[in-house]
Every structure is written in C-alpha cells, then in structure tokens.
Specification:
This protein is α/β, with parallel strands linked by helices. The chain has a domain at 82-158. It contains nine helices and twelve strands. The chain has helices at 41-48, 71-75, 83-88, 95-101, 115-127, 143-155, 173-188, 226-229, 232-239; strands spanning 3-12, 15-25, 31-34, 56-61, 64-65, 78-81, 161-165, 194-199, 211-216, 219-225, 243-247, 253-257. Helix 4 (95-101) packs parallel to helix 6 (143-155). It binds adenosine-5'-triphosphate. Residues 12, 17, 35, 37-43 line the site of adenosine-5'-triphosphate (ATP). Its EC number is 3.6.3.34. It is an enzyme of class 3 (hydrolase). One of its GO terms (molecular function) is ATP binding.
C-alpha cells in the first residue's frame, strides 16, 4: 500500500486540527485532495512526509511505519512541490542545476555530477517542456516556468510518491492548462509515481486523478472515485452551498454557484 493512515488526529494548543482521519492509497491510484482554506490539507500532507507526528493514530507510507524508519532516507522517495519550496531555492542558481539538485534532495549542488545525471535532468526538462530554460537563472523565470522546474526537480529523484500542493497558484489559464497536461502525461508514463494533487479548484482535476478526498474541518468528509465525489449533490453538501457541477467530454469539470 502507498499510504495507510488509521485514525490519525493532530492537536495543537487544545485545538484539533486533524480529526480522526483514515485514508488508504493503493498502487495505481492518483488522488486529488479537495478542501477549502484551512481545512487541513497541508497538515495532512505534512504527516505523510513525516514533518509532523499524529497525536493519536498511525501513519504508514510506502510500507514504512513512521517511528521505525530513517525519515531522511524515507523523504527521498517522496517528491514535494509547493510554493514554500520555491522560496527555499537560490534565485541565482541555473534552472538545470535546480533540477539536478533534486537527485540529492539538497538545495544547492554539493555532489559529483555524472554525465548520466545531466542527461536525465535534460530528458525530464524536455518532458515538462522546459528544455529551453537551460542556462537561465531561477529568478528570471516566470511563475509557470518555475513550477515546471520544481516538478522536474522532484522527478529527478525518481520518487514513488509525488505531492503537488496547489501547483497552479499564480498561473494564467494557458500556463495552467499546459502544466495540467504535463502532470497528466507524468501520470500516464511507465513506472509513474503515485500523484497527490492538492487544490481548491475542481477545474484542475485531470482525468488521471481517479480518486478524490474531500476534507473539511480537519476530517474526511467523503472519499472515493472522483466521479462520485465531484458531482453536484456531493459537492453541494460538502460546501454547504448549492453548486452545479458539469463534466465535459474530455472529463474536465466545471462548477458554478446555483
Ligand atoms: N503549527 C500550527 N499551529 C497551530 N495551528 C495550525 C498549525 N498548522 C496549521 N494550523 C491550523 O490548522 C488549520 C489547517 O491548516 P492547513 O494549512 O492544513 O490547511 P489547508 O487546507 O492546507 O489550507 P490552505 O488551503 O489555506 O493552504 C488552519 O486553521 C491552520 O491555521
């Protein structure tokens, strides 16, 4: 099993932030995590990555029981793309070096780079339509280009699990669509990592996300097949507001308030 969370809760200063969450992710599934601001998505993913520990309950990720595993080694199997990651990178670094650094899970490059590492970095950049960014420093890249470089960096370590935390933040509709199609193509390739995609926007749910977790007030509101989760009745009750959800032929969703 990729993720097996049993009755996990996390309390901070007498507040329950994660409340009795149980969630299982099987190989071959790609999950979308949908929830409003402050619903607990990032906190839940921090648990998956071992950054925080549940107050009660158990977390098992990639068949490793937390508490019995070297977390530094463990995290190498998990790619993480988020805006907070962007802020930790050095702006003067070249795009390809940022991608390469993903192999060592480091911010700069301190290791010997082999020719095959360069080739791998280039091939991943190509896959993300980012090969023309070779030679450019990170601080000169647009938001959309930075996101592609960050995803390439995460893929460099051949992760088993790839967490994409609101990767389309700040992107215009064209860059957003382009990035979403790249993400879809990552999911379709051989030996693809399991994807966890966090968003507020159901329009971003690509066909590869066959499972969806609806999270509200730190608890699982519902989870299961995306087709059953992302539909008018379910989401109206999830948002406590009537919404009309449409699914286009290409299996992309749209939503409007009724
Ligand atoms: N270390 C902490 N101490 C106290 N409260 C926290 C801590 N971390 C998170 N919270 C609170 O827990 C709740 C859930 O936060 P979290 O960041 O997980 O939500 P989210 O669903 O990722 O939100 P967003 O979509 O806005 O990023 C919020 O109310 C937040 O203020």
């Amino acid at each position: 099993m990729i993720i097996d969370i049993q009755h996990a809760s996390w309390r901070r200063d007498q507040t329950t932030i994660i409340n009795d969450i149980s969630w299982q992710v099987q190989p071959g599934e790609h999950w979308c995590l949908l929830g409003l601001n402050g619903s607990g998505k990032t906190t839940l993913l921090n648990m998956v990555n071992g950054y925080i520990w549940p107050t009660t309950g158990s977390i098992n990720v990639l068949d490793e029981q937390f508490g019995a595993v070297d977390l530094r080694e463990h995290r190498k199997k998990i790619g993480w793309v988020s805006t907070s990651m962007q802020q930790r990178l050095h702006g003067h670094e070249k795009a390809e070096n940022i991608v390469l650094s993903g192999k060592f899970a480091s911010i700069g490059i301190y290791n010997q780079i082999e020719e095959q590492d360069h080739a791998q970095a280039l091939s991943i950049m190509k896959q993300l339509d980012a090969e023309r960014l070779v030679g450019r420093t990170y601080d000169t890249l647009s938001q959309g280009e930075r996101q592609r470089i960050l995803i390439a960096r995460a893929l460099m370590a051949s992760p088993e699990l790839l967490i994409l935390d609101e990767p389309c933040t700040g992107l215009d509709i064209f860059s957003r669509d382009q990035l979403l199609h790249r993400i879809q193509s990552i999911a379709m390739q051989d030996h693809a990592p399991t994807l966890l995609y966090v968003t507020h926007h159901i329009e971003e749910i690509m066909p590869c996300f066959n499972k969806t977790l609806l999270i509200r007030d730190g608890a699982v509101f519902a989870s299961g097949d995306t087709t059953a989760m992302v539909e008018s009745k379910q989401l109206s009750s999830f948002f406590n507001t009537p919404v009309d959800v449409r699914s286009e032929t290409g299996q992309r969703y749209s939503i409007r308030l009724v």
